[in-house]
Amino acid sequence: MQQKRWFGHFRRWRFPLSAVLDAALWLGALYVATLARLSFEPEAIVASNYAKVAVVAIAMQLTAGVLMGLYRGRHPIASFGEVMLVVASSVLAGSAATLLVVLTGSPSLLPISAVLAATAYQMLGALGVRYVGRLIVEISGRSGHDREHRAIVFGAGDAGYQLVQALQRDPEADTVPVALLDDDPTKAKRRMQELRVVGGKKDIAAAAERFDADVLLIAMPAAPHDVIVDVADRAQAAGLTVRVLPRLSQIVEHGVRVRDIRDIALADFLERDEVRLDLEQIAGYLEGKRVLVTGAGGSIGSELCATIRHFNPARLLMLDHSESNLHRLSLSMDGSGSLDSPDLILADIRDPEALQEIFERESPQVVFHAAAHKHVPFLESYPAEAIKTNVQGTFNVLAAAADTQVERFVNISTDKAADPVNVLGFTKRIGERFTAHFAPLTTGVFMSVRFGNVLGSDGSVIPTFREQLTQGRPLTITHPEATRYFMTIPEAVQLVVQAGAIGGDGNVLVLEMGEPVKIIDLAHRLAAQLKPGVPANIKVIGLRPGEKLHEVLFSADDTTVDKPHEQLWRCTVPPLDPALLDGATTREHLAKLIDDPALATWHR
Prior knowledge:
It is built from 20 helices and 22 strands. It has 604 residues and is an alpha/beta fold. α14 runs parallel beside α15.
């Protein structure tokens, strides 16, 4: 407590104190320089002459310092900006003293060489005092609380420096930095905040053992994706938990903050940078509108609701058939979970009368249709359920939207609708074609958007793997060569919102998702993330009914139109009249009613 009180006084009086010290340094520097010039004979110094020169130098030092902001706290102590002001004010003071000596003529008040030397002495002294002051500030500002983790920081640049400094000062940080690593040879042996660069990425394991570290913090916000992945892989293999800084744009805006450090996520390992669409620019169509989201309590639906609310709709209507999902959504949106909001709608899209009544009562202007059954194995076993929800339910929503003249309708589909081979794919393909059928028949814009696999969504492979790891069970994969396109939940939501702005009637917009990822690689990475240094236990169970070895993004009968955005493809699908499917409840019925070669060969 006394240390903090002393430190607070030091900060409060630093600038007046620095002015006094600068003045005192002039008195001492001028005397020492003159004494040295006069062969260390004190009696040779004329006190009045010394006083005149000292007064001029001090007056100019203080005047220049005040005017330039040196004594008004414009720059942090010993920063580059303050150093420049110290040099400038000292040079001006020395120049004024020299000019006084020159103008007084002969005999000189003091030797000119003594005045010039005194200027140099005073400048060095002022800089030295500030350096000591900075050390005091940094040492006094560090938190001495016990830390749970010991971290190696990879990256000895500006971001690394800020990270180390932030960790040392934050009184709530649970991590203490113990060493630095960097592959740049020019930074070898560099010291920052009393820490030394002890090697590069090849030295991660050795450094972890040497410094008894359990965490690696990657402080390279502008590094290429493959470099980050390589460093993370090496660290996890060495048994270290990996954490990363946010993107460079966030650091530039806010600086490095301890609360921004996060665990490395599977999205960081995707073979591409995470897509960032310009929502602010394109989401104006949501402001002041009545917006309805079906399937609002699901992974995509709930994130979509949170994003839409950011754009100030007149109302945000959240429809789901699950009470539990709506309760969870209510908690996340307003923290109450009271379920008494008229914007929470408990209804089933399989019920056309209920949907029609809701649409007529609420008159939504923008609809995002996210409600669906999506699990391939389940739907292979219960195709009628998929047809009731994904086909008939989608038709019900489309019909109600068309009858009430919805302005924009976005149907959320999946890449399994491209060249479909399973129940999910065919039912979602039909939903896309229904949407294309309704598009020219309505006054609004009706479109679809096609996703890849969404990392972390309910029931997806990631939660499954996590649960298996938690239980100590092997990670089950269908085939060692199986690949999928992956995207994050925020990417999926951004694609939906972007599609609502730029998609045309009957369009299907598809995210540019880079190269597909092997499921087995994902399993290894998740195991390394949750249990660093422990080899993953993988069990291959074989492809299940309806599963592809590799997914595709487009069907053979899709017509690719263009790329309205660098991260989006736009294509069209053949429209399908829903009247053809009236009463269809089985795969065989669908195959008989639809003239679709792929659907005709659809077998269990």
